[in-house]
Every structure is written in C-alpha cells, then in structure tokens.
Amino acid sequence: MTAFALAARSFIVQLVAVAVGVVVSVTLLALVGTSPTDALEALLRGAFGTDFALTQTVLKAIPLALCGLAVAVPLLMRLWNIGAEGQFHAGAIGATFAALSAPEWPAAALLPAMIGAGMAAGALLALAAAVPRALWGVNEIITTLLLNYVAILAVAYLVIGPWRGAESFNFPVSDLFSPAAALPRLGSSQLHLGVFFPLIAAAILVFLLHRSPWGFEVRMIGASPGAARAAGMSTRKNVVVVMLVAGALAGVAGMVEVSMTFGRLQQGISPGYGYMAIVIAALAGGNVLGTLAAAILFGGFVVGGFALQTLGVPQAFVLMLQGIILFCALAGARLAGSRLTPWLPLRLRRGEAGEAALQKEEPSIP
Amino acid sequence: MNDREHLVALRGIVKQFPRVRANDRVDFDLRAGEIHALLGENGAGKTTLMNILTGLYRADEGEIRIRGEPVELRSPRHAITRGVGMVHQHFRLVDRFTAAENVTLGWHSPRTVIRRRPLEEEIQRLSERYRLRVDSARPVWQLSVGEQQRIEILKNLYRGADILILDEPTAVLTPQEASGLFESLREMAAAGRGVVFITHKLEEVTAVADRVTVLRRGRNVATVARADTSEPELARMMIGHELPERRAESAAEPGEVVLAVSGLEADDDRGLRALSGIELEVRAGEIVAIAGVAGNGQRELTEVLVGLRPARAGRIVFRNRDVTNASVARRIAAGIGYCPEDRLRQGVAPSLSVTDNLISKRYRSAPVGHRFLLRRRQARRVAAELARRFDIRGADLDAPAATLSGGNVQKLVLARELSADPALLIAAQPTRGLDVGAAEFIRRLLLEQRARGRAVLVIGEDLDELLEIADRIAVIYEGAINGVFRAREANEERIGLLMAGRAA
To answer: Looking at A136-150, A169-183, A229-243, B118-132, which range is the least confident one?
Structure first.
C-alpha cells in the first residue's frame, strides 16, 4: 500500500468521525429547543459569515495556532505539553518586560526585542519541565500543567506589584505600551503583522521536520524510541530541544496578545488558549499544517459561540459542542490507525510486520 | 476411517485474504490420541488454518466437522465449548495475575467471590497429570517463558479442550524445555486428546509427531504417518528442495582481536545483576556465537555491547579503544553494527517509510545529510540501491516499513547495518521467525562478512544454525561465559550440558 493511500484512508475515516460529531451536536441542540439549522447558521455566520466575523476568527486563530504548534511539536515525540498556557503567559511577561524597559525604542527595534524576550521566557518555562523529563523521566504532563499556575500567578503578581501602572488608577494592570510596541496593522483592517507568525512558524517547522537531520531525529524518536536509540539518537537532547521550541512558540503567542489585543499586561489575557491548543494539536494528530487548520476552526468556534448566545444558547453549551466534535474526531483518529475498520477497502494488512507492530504499541519514550 | 472417529475433519477449507489465498481447498483431520504436526514454511497457511478451527477467522468455503458433527465456529470462546483450544505464539496472559488467576480469567463469572481452593486443586491435578509444572501462586511476569506456556496449556485443558493446537510452541523454549513439552504432549495424546503442533522444524516432527500434514502455499501437499516418511522427504515436500549442507570452516585464520570484553557486569531492567563477569573475544574474520538458555543474560549482553545499557563493571575494548562508557552514536561511528533481536522495536520504526529506515544511521553524513539539510533525493537513491542490493522485496520505498514481511524487515535492517561496513556486527536472533529462504539469505550475509575479514557476534538459540555458521561457540549461563569451543569440536550434547550450568 502506498503512503498516499494510507493517508487518504486516514483522512476519510476522520472526516466521517467529525460528521458523526456534528450530527450528535445538532441532535442535542434540537433537544434544548433550538432549531439546529438556525444554530448552525448562526455559528457559521458568526464565525465566517462577514468580514468582521472572519477578521475576529483569524485574530483568535493566531494565538490558538501558535499554542497549537507548541503542543503539536512535542507530540511528535510523544511528549504532552500541557503547559502552552503557562508558556503563553511567560511569553507575555517577557514581551512586557521588553516593552516597559525600552519604551523609547522605535518599533523596528522594540518589536524584535519583544518577540525575542517572549520566546526566551516561554522557552525558559518549558525548560523547567524538559530537564527533569530528560534526566529523570519526570512526567511532563504533570510538570507542564503545574508550571501553568506559576506563570499565570506570576502575571498576577507583576501587575498587582512591581509592574502596576502609574496611570492605571490602582487597577491591577501595567501601563499601556508605547505605540511602537504594537504590531503594524495590515492596511485599514483589524488584521496585523501577527497573522504571519503562525504561517512563518509552520513553514519553518515543516522544513525542519522533513528536510533536516534534526527533524528526522524527532520523527524517528516519535515513531519508535527503541529504534531511534539503537540508531544512536539522543532522546534526552531532543526532549529538551523540542520543549524549548514549544515554549518559544507559545511565548510568541503571548507577545502578540499583549502587543495587540491588550496593549499592556493584565490578568486574564488568555481565555484558555493553551488548553484549547491541546485539543487543536490532538485534532490535527500532531500534524503542523493540520494544526493551522484546526486553529482556524477553533477560532471560529470561539467567535461563532458569541453569535450562538444571541439565540439563547448558553456559551457553556458551545463548549460542550466543541467537546463532542473533538471526541468524535479523536475516536476517528484512533480508528484510522487501528484494525477496527475492516470495512474500509484500503487496509494495512500486508505484512506480518504490520500486524505485529499494531499489537505492540509503545506507551512512551524511555 | 470415517469422520466419526476423527476429532476434527476439515474439508475443502478456503480462506482468501486481500492479496493472498492463505488456504486453498485444504483438507485436514485429527484423530483422538495423536500428535499431528502441521509443517510448512512461514506463510504456508498453517496458522490461518488453525485460526479457522478456533473460530478466530471464518472460512470462505469448506466444512468443519468436530467429532463428526458439522459446526460453524463463531469465536474462540465458542470453539472451546466444542473442545478446541489453541496456544498462540504470543501468550495471552495478564502479567500481574497468578497462574491460577489467568487460568480462570474470563471463564468463570462468579457472583460474589472466587473460591480459590477447588480451583487451585484442579489446576494442580491437571498439572501433575500432564507434567506441566507451574508455580500457581506467583504472578506471571516472574515466571519463565516455558512456565508461561504451560499456563496457557493448562488454561485450555481446564476449559475442557481435548483438541489442543500449539502454534510453534518451541520457538521460545530451550531444548530442555522443549523435550519436557513433548513429554506433556505425549501424555495428553495418550489420554485420548488430539494435539496439533504447528512447526517449521523437521527435527520436532521426528521427535514428537504421529502424523504430519505438509502445507505449501496454502495447499495441503500431503498427510503422511511419520513412520512412513523421512526428514529429507518432508523437507522436499515443504520447500521443494533438500536442506542445504553444513558450511565449511572459515578458510582464513582469524585476524587481530576486534572485540575484547573482560569482567563485564550489568543489571537487568529490574535492577538485578544479569551479567556477572563476562569474558569474551571476537577476532576479525570469525563468527562467534553466544549460545544459551534464554534469559541467561543474552539480551543484557547485547545491549551493553551496543551501548543501550550501562555497564556496572568491567571493560569493553573495541579495536584497541575502550568503549565501555561510549554512547551508542560513538560506537556506531567506531564501527559496531547492530541487528537487534526485537526488529520491530529496535530494528526499524515501523510507521516510518522504508527509505527513512534505511537511512536512519547515515542521515547526518554525505550524501544524505548535508550540513543542516536532509537531501531527500539522495536518500531515495541510497534506499533504492540498498533495496536492490539486499533484495528487499515488495518494497514501496515510501510506504511504512510495517508493510514489509518479517524477512524483508530483517533484510532492511541488515542492508542498513552492512552498508556501513562495520568492523563488528552484533546480530541477535538474526533468523528468528523468518522463513527458510529469508533465513538462508541472512546466514549468507553473515558468512560474507566473515569472508571479508569482518568480525561477527551472533546471539542465538537455534543450536543447529549456530553450529552451521559459527567458528567458535561461547555458552552463556547465569550471566557468565561457561565455556567456549570450536564449532567443529562441538556437539549438541556438550553444549546442552554447558547450557544447563555444568562443566563439559
């Protein structure tokens, strides 16, 4: 069976799975007394129907995509980075530090400084989880999750304490950044330069993963830690590198948000981007381009969710619908890779090696 | 003899898989009180046929009669109510459960509590009756493979199987354990049960079978009484030509010492001492074999030598350089090739493409690796060249390695390792589970290495094979080398004694 046929099969299975999720969601909507067609229309129109809606969706998709990549890249090595939320906040802190330290710098100097500081701060936080993982096998799911609280509370501490703004009327927010700290807008639209960040990041990642020796190592370790080790690859080194990359990506997202959405540091800068990112990356199966697409979808969910509320559907219900669709999509991914789909014409059934490989799946890297 | 006297009668069984007709109008019958060997190469359709008899697969055509009655078997569970039980190659036991728990697992569904006493007594009775010694109180993970297999057999007997199918049961056993198993099987046959014994080893047929059915490419070539046939005849039926002759000794004298191991100690995964002072030498232009009962430190020795497991004490000197604590990458660069026992976990990354797997040790060096670039076109060119040279068949270079057959996976591994021209190749169980043709190809590659003046260390369990290709044989016992001798001066009996921990 060719690689293309395998990919096509997996895609079809997942498409069917998402469709099942939509059907279940629509049924639930009907049960709460909302016309499913109205609801669907409101959701779609609210997310993608107008220029304004589309712009909002894209703006939401920027941090979602960057955080999604921050989860997706470690996932390639079977590492679960639950800490994109924390790395996002760390990135916001780093960018704020740069913006507050050098308010007189021109944009051409200040913006790169903010991006660099955001990436460094995000990476540093990720490093705190990566090193124990690499050296002693400390479960990164727990450590990255706990570090989220550290970063979120650090933001609270900073805006209440040392960085509370002189002009903030005692509200726990930093001073507004200088105009130079805002990313340039594209024409007259709300869109800004940050739109390109996920695209640039994705392009670099795709290139590195498929056209560089480092990417080869990451893919091999993810595919088979045992074979990678026997081939002389260092799991430890790559655990650290991959987590640094992830932290830097989420850090950029934090920088974009303080630079554009808020213009200063404050609490509540993320409605849970880092957690939605886990869902996004899982939905995309760790695939870089798939992560971008899923981020747009989720951006749409968030923005369209507001429109749905005008029909009297509570926002929590929107989250539930997201959950159902995701659940089905993940189940689909599982089915696509397993032997539970004998009705599909294209089967990975040729070699005994394939059979055996399916039987012994490895839990995690050593 | 009519069907009533047969425990099992399969008539005209056909099973079609997407690319291959695994069974093509196969007839097979099993009498009460006989051990019936099902002989054939890998892929001959033996396991498929028996999976049909145990209800795991359904035949596309044909009839199954059990004790003369036509039956339609819906599942293994259904089959066992008809008295058909199978011991698979990969055991289906729960590691943390005891033997007794595994035997009852999924069979009884007690309303409240399991009454241990009668259960353990019944297991005890069966195990004594058929000489299937197990420690029924210990969890399975602490037991040897042989014991685990005995639990599988007991499980089937306990559930009332009088038609017992064993799929290559000796593959995981030592010679001593295997002869113990044969005795148990004879006891069962003597008690009127029928035993089907799937194998591709002629000596086992000779040792244990009453009748033999030979399958080749999904067809029944013949069913004969063992007394009416001979090994050469069976071999002919199975593969179409006689078995190859034994190899001559290496023509050249071995050269300088390539690998010198002294006082080597290491722990196993549980932190227990697995190697306690290994002394070993491998010279250029010779094949040294490590023989021994499985679990005496072979895996740990292999892993310490290639750098996957730390040494606790001792020295490994490779080409006059101390590599005791060197990384895997350093050892590869120094010229150690590794053909691992667990091909699908250490040999290849099954989900990556054939090409990726072929370049997985040269992705940083020219022509594939170029500074920060991985050159796909060069990678493909190298892969295509290796696939051709090492006869990796059925290879779509972009398809996952998992789509290859076992033999071709092994060729892939050796293609990658040998193309680096390693001064020392460490091959663990290089032909295990391969069909005759692929195994022969692999052996020839090892002999070629020797002929080219390279050193080869083979860790194996198939004594015949080791005697056939190795120059010297080192027997490992409880983590130390218990004796070394020239293959031409060795015989199985002598090695057997050393393997059992006695001096010879």
So the answer is: B118-132
Tell me how far CA of residue B158 lies from CA of A231, B101, B126, B145, in angstroms: 46, 12, 8, 20
Question: Which residues pair with residue B23 across a beta bridge?
Answer: B15
Check: CB of residue B198 under 8 Å from CB of residue B46.
Answer: yes
> B48 vs chain A: nearest CA distance in angstroms?
12
Q: How many CB atoms lie within 10 A of CB B112?
A: 5
Q: Is B329 on the interface with A (CB under 8 A)?
A: yes
User: Choosing among B355, B403, B405, which should be mutated to test the A contact, i.e. which has the most A CBs within 10 A?
Assistant: B403
Helix axis angle, A107-136 to A140-160, nearest 10°: 140
Q: Report CA dihedral (B370, B371, B372, B373) to the nearest 10 degrees.
A: -10
Helix (H, G, I), strand (E, B) or coil at A213: helix
Name the A residues in 206-265 with CB < 8 Å from any B CB: 210-217, 219-220, 223-224, 226-234
Element (H, E) at A206: helix A196-211
Contact state of B406 with A351 under an 8 Å Cβ cutoff? yes
Please judge whether B403 and A216 are an interchain contact, meaning their C-beta atoms are less than 8 angstroms apart: no
DSSP secondary structure code for residue A261 in this structure? I
pLDDT band at B356 (very low <50, low <70, confident <90, very high): very high
Confidence at A340, pLDDT banded by 50, 70, 90: very low
**In the predicted model, what is the mean pLDDT of residues B423-427?**
97
B112 Rama class: left (phi>0) / alpha (psi -120 to 50) / beta: alpha
pLDDT in tens, B70-125: 999 888 888 998 999 999 877 888 888 888 888 877 776 656 666 777 778 888 88
| B480 DSSP β-pair partners | B477
pTM of the model as a whole: 0.72
Measured between alpha carbons, how far is B221 from B25 in angstroms, rounded to an integer? 11
Give the helix/strand (H/E) hosting B199: strand B194-199
The single-letter code of the amino acid at B397 is L
Query: Stretch B344-371: mean pLDDT, rounded?
Result: 88
B321-322 and B336-339 as β-strands: parallel, antiparallel, unpaired?
Answer: unpaired
CB contact under 8 A, B376 and A2: no
Please report which confidence band the pLDDT of residue B402 belongs to, taking 50, 70 and 90 as the band edges: confident
- Share of residues in chain B with pLDDT > 70 (%): 90
Residues 441-470 of chain B with CB under 8 A from chain A are none
Q: What is the interface pTM, i.e. ipTM, of the complex?
A: 0.79
Count the alpha carbons within 13 Å of B308 in the hemisphere toward its beta carbon.
Answer: 23
Would you call B231 helix, strand, or coil by DSSP? helix
* Cis amide prior to A106 (ω within 30 degrees): no
Which residues, 6 or more positions from A138, have their beta carbon under 8 angstroms from its beta carbon? Answer: A132
**pLDDT tens across A149-165, in order?**
999 999 999 999 899 98
* Other C-beta atoms lying within 10 Å of the C-beta of residue B286: 23
For B405, the closest of A223, A228, A352 (CB atoms) is A352
- Which residue in the block uniquely carries the two structure tokens 């530090």? A97
Question: How many Å lie between the alpha carbon of A211 and the closest alpha carbon of chain B?
Answer: 5
| CA dist., res. A225 & res. A366, Å (int) | 7
Task: Give residue A213's pLDDT band: very low, low, confident or very high (50, 70, 90).
Answer: very high
d(CA B9, CA B28): 6
8 Å CB contact between B418 and B445? yes
Q: Are A342 and A43 a contacting pair, CB within 8 Å? A: no
**Helix A352-359, helix B406-418: angle, nearest 10:** 90
CB contact under 8 A, B328 and A232: yes
- Please say whether the beta carbons of A216 and B357 come within 8 A: no
Mean pLDDT of A9-35: 80
Q: Which of B218, B223, B156 is nearest to B9 (CA)?
A: B223
Other beta carbons within 10 angstroms of residue B334's beta carbon come to 15
